[in-house]
Every structure is written in structure tokens, then in C-alpha cells.
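During the reporting period the student researcher (J.K.) took over the structure-prediction task from the postdoctoral fellow and processed the backlog of single-chain submissions. One of the processed entries is reproduced below for the supervisory committee.
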Amino acid sequence: MARIYEYQGKQLLTAVGVSVPHGGVASIPEEVKRIAEKVGKPVAIKAQIWTTGRFKAGGIKFADTPEEAEAIARNLLGAAIKGLSVEKVLVEERLNIDKEFYIGVIVDNSFKVKAPVLVFSVEGGVNIEEVARRNPERVSSLVVDYLRGVDASDARELTSKLEVAPPLTDPISQAVCGLYEVFKRYDARIAEINPLVSTKDGSIYAADCRITVDDNSVFRHPEFGIRVPRDMEREPTELEDLAWTIEEGDYRGTGYFTQMAPEIKGEGYIGFHGIGGGGAMLGASALITRGLKIANYADTSGDPPASKVYRVVKAVLSQPIDGYILMGSCLANQEQWHHGHGIVKILKEELRDRPGFPVLLLVAGNKEKETHEIIRNGLKDLPIRLELYGRDYIYNTDFIADRVKALVEEYRREKGKKGGKEVK
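J.K. obtained the following C-alpha cells:
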């Protein structure tokens, strides 16, 4: 799922009639001052980053004057909040809040539901799952008939299950309908207003929002400027931009790539490549517990062609790494010899001039025997440290992780001696 920023989400809410605090988005301190002057009252300055918990992390500040807002923006813009760079801030009027609520639309993929679900809570600003667990009587939900949609009567049914003051019933119901309209119109997977607040004068505002768009629908919404439709808490790196073109241009199977360490500093990083999710994740965890650093997470499941496997591995090897592991720890329902052909071609191209480079491949499933033959024959003259394993090792992640660690340590010692230093 691809996220959009809070200010973008509020633009969508405004377009469907949901009230948001008066303000605007800025990328320079002088612009922050101009917006604060236009608002004409105390403001909140909110870092536009893809993460929750901004207030506690120092990403939301308050100012009484435009000059104070400008000074705050000088410190906030360009700063790192929870490891994320702040490039824009949202400047909004500071609300005189009386009560907070939560409304959301989520997709329930369970076999019993398989539909959007409206959720409403008389507690806002907190983790809704925790509220539902601790105080279920404070949360209500309603399964949506997608073909019929949501109208005011549905919204009132949702809110009537809880104690809501009568003057707030209609404006909250309008906000529910508006949020669902955004959810539907923009192909969202999650749409939340948290908190939806009532002010001392009885007005209702979307004080904050979170909207994520279905990856497969991003092409329908170029206005969001989403470069890589992945659920990420930061802007994509240059390599992730490049790697996305693999998936964007070829939907046969999966060609997933994300960098776990956008900036690789020092040695000891390995390129990680999985086939499937659970087993590969366990393998990654086993590597980390042994002190190895994972540069990236790649996945080529779903029976991709050799050309796609080739391009994903090329992205992995383009990083300054000290080893490459393919953790195909599953009896995959795919023809694995496509992986064999793709891997042989790219390793022969990229590793010919990296003698001793560690490569551990765990490949199991359909055409396993033929795939191993392709790999052994294709790489027999390549001067690398190669170990190849099959289905007997798919549950033995500790053994695989120990072998990777040993190979990487040998390689680093060898490099250190050639470079005139001893690597410990």
C-alpha cells in the first residue's frame, strides 16, 4: 500500500465536504510565516512524514505568532524525525478541542467478510486496536455493501451504537460519508481520520488523517506523485526507484526490492533475496541474530521469468555488499529453473571480478534437481564461494545462517589481508 501525506489527504477530504483546520503546506520558513499570517491565530506546525507518533518525536510544534512559526520551521525543515527527513510542514490553525473521535474505513480480507468496514470510536488520537481490546463498548463497526455504498442512514447507524451528543450526530455522520467517498474514489486500502475533533463551539474537524492507496491503483492517481507504490515510511531511494521499474513493466510473478539500509556505511552487509514470505523472514531474522547486516530485502515469488529474477538480483548486487543469499525456504509452487537461469546469468556478469565473493543459494520446489544442475554447471568456473542447498534445509535456518556468517567472515579476512589490514 502506498501512503500519501497528511496535507494531501486533507485536500481530498476538503473536496468531499469534510472540514479541516484552516492553513496550508510549506517547504521554506518564509512560506510558513505567510501562512500563519493568513490564518491570523495561533498555529500548529506539523512535519509531513510517513509515520505516526510525530508529536512525541518532536514533529508537531505550536506557535502563537507568525514570527514564532517561522523560527520553529527553520529548525524543523531539514531535520530528522524518527529517522525521516522533514521536507514539508503543514501549518494549521490551532483548534480549541473539546472531544476527540476516530473514524476509519479498512478492508477486511477475511473469508467471512471480504468488504470495506466502517469503524467509529468515541476515543480518538490513540491506537484503535488497543481501544477495541480494552474498551470494546467504545468502538462500533459496520460492514459496507460495496455495490450500494454508504449514505447518511448508514453513518447514523454506526454512530448511534455509541454515546454521541445529538448536536454532533449529523456533522459526524457527514464526516463518515465523506471519508468513505474518499476511500472509494481514490482506491484506498485504509482511510482514517484520527482524531476527528469537536471544538468548544460545536464544530467538527478532521484534525489528522491517514490514507493509503492500493498499489495496483497508483497509476490511476498521478496527482499524488507517488514514485514507488510501496508501504514505506520514507521517500524511495534512487535504487528503489530503479528497482520499481522491474515490477512496473512486468507483472509476471513478483519482483520486490526495498533497501533496509538506504545508506550502507562500513562493511559486513549482505544482499538478501527471498522466495516467499514466512520462511524467508525467519532466515533474515536468523542472520540478524548472528550480527550480520541486511542491506536489502528482495522477493521473487509467484513464478517470475528468468529475466525478472535477473534484474532483481542485479539490483541486489549493485550495492556495496560482502555476500549474497537466496533464501528460497519454501517448496514453491513455481518452476524454479527460471531462477536458475536468471541467477547464473547475473552472477557470471557481476561476480567474475570479485574472487571469493560469498554466495549461498537455497532453492527448493518444482524442478529443484534441474535447477541445481543449471546453477552448478553455469557457475562452476566462477571464482566465488558458492554453497547450494535444497529442500532438506528449508527448515534449518540456523544452519544456513551459520554458513552465511562463516562465508562472509572468510571473505572479509581475505579482503583485509589483501588490503594490508587484518579484519576481525
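The committee noted the following: Residues 397-418 form the longest helix (22 residues).
J.K. will present the remaining backlog at the next meeting.
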